[in-house]
Amino acid sequence: MIEPLLPEPLLPETLLTVEGLTKRYGHRLACDSIGFTLDHGEVLAVVGESGSGKSTLLSLIAGEVAADAGSVSYRMRDGATRDLATLSEAERRALMRTDWGFVRQDATQGLRMAVSAGGNVGERLMGVGDRHYGRIRATALDWLARVEIAADRVDDPPTRLSGGMRQRLQIARNLVTAPRLVLMDEPTSGLDVSVQARLLDMIRGLVAELGLAVIIVTHDLAVARLLSHRVLVMRSGRVIETGLTDQVLDDPQAAYTQLLVSSVLAA
Amino acid sequence: MSPQGTVTVSAGTGYNFAYLDEGTKRMIRRAILKAIAIPGYQVPFAAREMPMPYGWGTGGVQVTAAILGAADVLKVIDQGADDTTNAVSIRRFFTATAGVATTTRTAEATVIQTRHRIPEAPLTEGQVLVYQVPIPEPLRFLEPRETETRQLHALAEYGLMHVKLYEDIARHGHIATTYAYPVEVAGRYVMDPSPTPKFDNPKMDDCPALQLFGAGREKRIYAIPPYTQVRSLDFEDHPFRVQRFDRPCALCGAEGVYLDEVILDDAGGRMFVCSDTDHCETRRADGHTGEAA
Amino acid sequence: MTPLLAFEDVAKSFTLHLRDGAVLPVIAGATLAVHSGECVVLGGASGAGKSSLLKMAYGNYRCPQGAVWVRDGARVVNLAAAAPREILALRRTTLSYISQFLRVIPRVGARAVVEAAGIEGGLPLKVARTRAGDLLSRLNLPERLWALPPATFSGGEQQRVNIARGLIAARPILLMDEPTASLDATNRAVVVDLIAEKRAAGTAILGIFHDADVREAVATRIVDVSAFRGAMAA
Q1: What is the pLDDT of residue A263?
Q2: Which residues 258-277 of chain B have a CB within 8 Å of chain A?
Q3: Which residue ranges does the record assign to the ABC transporter domain (chain A) (predicted)?
Q4: Is B166 on the interface with A (CB under 8 A)?
Q5: Residue C50 CB: number of other CB atoms within 10 A?
Q6: Rounded to whole angstroms, how far apart are CA atoms B284 and B143?
Q7: pLDDT for B11
């Protein structure tokens, strides 16, 4: 059973509070009154099948899609908790490119495909005003090494990198400003199994080392088990079940969760 | 500039003075005034179809038409030269539709329409430099979404512009952008100076003349008011530098000017001459000579 | 003396929604306490609910009825009602669990796996490193394997890594589910010794051991779980 070793949440304070988050597309409820809290350093997996609303939930939290109801509050670096809806667009964007990260399923959505690997990593630094080429490049090289991309690929654009490398580059690009919260939308899907394992292990290591809080959306229960402290099972826009990851996966209560767990192929 | 409220029809052509009708000119002038009020900001305007193809300076021509008065003296240059097809055509266009005086002498002109150069002779108060602009959006090559680039301008998020310069250095070891080198205007908006060589960027800074930019296909006007700070973007460890030429003009011997390479024969013979033909001719008339003269 | 771990009138059943909501009763009326220095071995036939009890003690299974008391320093926490974060905290400080199988983490070497468990349990890096090596040596895992990820190890080798992981940190409560099942006689004897040492150090141990020799060697008390079925309504 259980227990891939997970890092201890460093400061057991609430970092993010989601309340009553609701989004309707026509008659369809993509998210129906979703609520949860996330602590510093805590990893929450949102699992469910395609169309369950899990990716919409991530977009709502990031403020990329406007919610019909509900709120997202975040404890800013200055210690003040702010309702993200009250942030100005400039503040929201500044938050997103410094204290938050967003790793996308589709690397072409999360990277600048025409810009070199180094430029992709350096963008956030330049975005916060670093104007020293040598320093930006050194930091980019350092981060590429941390995500196991060879230094001689620093000037290659993502179009010349493999799928696994693109995802690792996304991670480096996001983590370069030392964010405290990272949203991940199916970061490993579509990759070969061995590549997935490497990426997952890397994410796991970085999360532990940096004490990141993570919300990871995945349909892969093994990913949830390996990375997350807690899990949120979603179906048809609703939270069906939530709790300690190994408890939900090993002793599922809801019929849907039991179906989900029993549908996994054992290797 | 033409006096307000007067409708003048140029003799012989049947067109209104300077081709555009007065309502259109007013619309363009409003856009120009707004552009002057917000230096470097791209003001949308309802660009008209002009009797020339896009890419031939339809934006610059509309701006010139909107500001031209009967007493103005017009100079038109293309790549610094007064005698190239584009320059000659536009000069003839305004001679025919507005009947204004034209000149090739920078010092004599009140309105200078240009493609790809700023004259070598210092511009003065009261002069207007009108740039023809193909692509006004400096961020486009990295961020193709217009909705997003507008946001970036609105929030002054210009990190992306440095990503482009970063890419240059990473690829070429130095900032290899030599044309359309991005500038920050009055400490606020980042602006594409149109495809002028970066050699000319320093001339835009604190310039006594009014600089207007017109993009016809893209329907944008922007401006640098006289005596405005214009700073070329760079990195602390890769500061902005203009091109240097290791020889003087072969015809007039001028140094510190922008030179064009001229191929002389099939045997590799070539020479470097002033791109600004007026500047070169003026110097030669004053008795300066280069090695080929 | 208060026990370190106590079940109080615990009942557990599984509702199988995929089988038309069939309810599978597992255990009822389970009351059991484990004190410091004790090694309580759960007995009873297969399916009697031994593993379920262990898993409830670790918070891995929910406990819908009754209470599972865990002493955490000066306070006593009911695991059945604890929030996920509290359960995770208890696993770091108080509860250790050794299962039958090692869930492998890709790309991490055997020694590093054990060492990380020590660090998570509060050991300083140096101590964790030394102790990980000591434990793997005692469990006869050849040193050439230490740097390799256990994924390619034999069942017995993986299980020894698993045991080392579970024992490295000094947590007051140790839960063991058939830890010796895939071990040979030599290594079974090592585990027996290790358990004795833990007990001597005051650890409260609750375990399942099918092997009669091991059971006899480690148990201070054997509790037949079948007794808890009597109270079941079915």
Answers
A1: 85
A2: none
A3: 16-261
A4: yes
A5: 26
A6: 47
A7: 56
Strands C173-177 and B101-102: unpaired
Name the strand (E) or helix (H) holding C91.
Answer: helix C84-93
Sign of the alpha-carbon torsion through C181, C182, C188, C192? negative
Contact partners for chain A, using 3 or more CB pairs closer than 8 A, are B, C
- pLDDT value for A1: 36
A 39-58 residues with CB < 8 A to B:
none
Beta bridge partners of A22: A69
Tell me the two tokens of residue B77.
Answer: 């240059």
Q: Which residues of B touch A124 (CB under 8 A)?
A: 159
Q: Please give, rounded to a whole number of angstroms, the shortest distance from the CA of C132 to a CA of chain A.
A: 15
Threshold 0.80, pTM exceeds: yes
* DSSP 8-state symbol, B131: E
Task: Please state, in angstroms and rounded to a whole number, the distance separating the CA atoms of residues C100 and C102.
Answer: 7
How many whole angstroms separate alpha carbon B210 and alpha carbon B115? Answer: 16
Chain C residues with beta carbon closer than 8 angstroms to that of A6: 88
- Phi (first) and psi of residue C7, to 5 degrees: -95, 135
Q: Which chains touch B (3 or more CB pairs under 8 A)?
A: A
B150 touches chain A (CB under 8 A): no
Looking at residue C232, what is its pLDDT?
Answer: 53
Strand B73-78 and strand B101-102: the pairing is parallel
**pLDDT tier at B5 (50, 70, 90 boundaries)?**
very low
How far, in Å, are B27, B28, B45, B210 from residue B48 at the CA level?
A: 11, 10, 9, 23
Domain parsing of chain C, residue ranges? 35-61+83-222
Lowest mean pLDDT across B226-230, C46-50, C117-121: C46-50
Q: List, as ranges, residues 171-230 from B with C-beta within 8 Å of A.
A: 171
What's the pLDDT score for residue A4? 41
**Length of chain B in terms of residues written:** 293
Distance from CA of B162 to the nearest CA of A (A): 7
Confidence band, pLDDT 50/70/90 cuts, at residue C74: confident
CB contact under 8 A, C85 and A200: no
Number of H helices, E strands in chain A: 10, 10
Average per-residue pLDDT for chain A: 92
Give the pLDDT confidence of C146-165 residue by residue, as tens digits: 999 998 899 999 999 999 99
Q: How far is B174 from chain A (nearest CA, A)?
A: 10
Phi, psi at A152, each rounded to 5°: -75, 0
Give the DSSP H/E element, type plus range, for residue B6: none
Q: Which superfamily, per CATH, for C35-61+83-222?
A: P-loop containing nucleotide triphosphate hydrolases (3.40.50.300)
DSSP B257: S
Q: Cβ of A258 and C17 within 8 Å? A: yes
Amino acid identity for residue C202 in this structure: G
Count of A–C CB contacts within 8 Å? 77
In A, which residues are within 8 Å of B162 by CB distance?
126, 131
Q: Chains B, A in contact: 3+ Cβ pairs under 8 A?
A: yes
3-state SS, residue B292: coil
Task: Give all strands (DSSP E) within B182-293, no chain letters.
Answer: 183-185, 189-191, 210-215, 220-224, 230-232, 259-263, 270-274
Contact B115/B101 with Cβ under 8 angstroms?
Answer: no
Q: Which domains does chain B have, with CATH numbers?
A: 22-141+166-232 (3.40.50.11310), 244-293 (no CATH)
User: How far is the first Cα of chain C from the last one, in angstroms, to the nearest whole number?
Assistant: 35
A and C touching (3 or more beta-carbon pairs closer than 8 Å): yes
How many whole angstroms separate alpha carbon B270 and alpha carbon B138?
Answer: 34
Of B169, B171, B236, the CB nearest to A131: B236
Length of chain C: 234
Strands B259-263 and C22-34: unpaired
Rounded CA gap, A49 and C194, in Å?
A: 45
